[in-house]
């Protein structure tokens, strides 16, 4: 995986995270999703990954569930964060509402050019966490 940083003053954190996980480029993402000034959406991120063989999210294996599954069945999903890669949306610390980072092999990859990659996940206020599954593996 190539570690990418967005250019200072841009809202290219989403394209940078998408490019890192798919081994493409920020320019390729932006060519597919030209944007207005407000930045990019989670939908655009997930669509870009899906078109390249990745799924954002996870599935639940109910084959070993101890009871018959009905519409009323409550399912609790648990997973260890260190065991998956993820697109993570966090509260921005630079005046914007949100910022995207990559969680990969137990490490944070923050496309903010002012951040080092040795940052702990606990240093962020996580808003959304999308596990990423590579369907090609």
**H and E order:** HHHEEEEE
CATH class: Alpha Beta
Under CATH, the homologous superfamily reads Cysteine proteinases
Query: Rounded to an integer, what's the Rg over CA atoms?
Result: 16 Å
CATH topology call: Cathepsin B, Chain A
Highlighted features:
137 residues, alpha+beta, Cathepsin B, Chain A, five-stranded antiparallel beta sheet, 3 helices, 21% strand
Describe the structure in brief.
By secondary structure, this protein is α+β, with helices and mostly antiparallel strands. The chain contains three helices and five strands, in the order αααβββββ.
Molecular structure report:
By secondary structure, this protein is an alpha+beta fold. The protein has a single domain, classed as Cysteine proteinases (Cathepsin B, Chain A, Alpha-Beta Complex), CATH 3.90.70. The protein has three helices and five strands. A five-stranded antiparallel sheet has the order 1-5-2-3-4. Helix 1 (13-22) packs across helix 2 (26-32) and helix 1 (13-22) runs parallel beside helix 3. It starts with 12 loop residues before the first helix and ends with a strand. The model has no long low-confidence stretch (mean pLDDT 87).
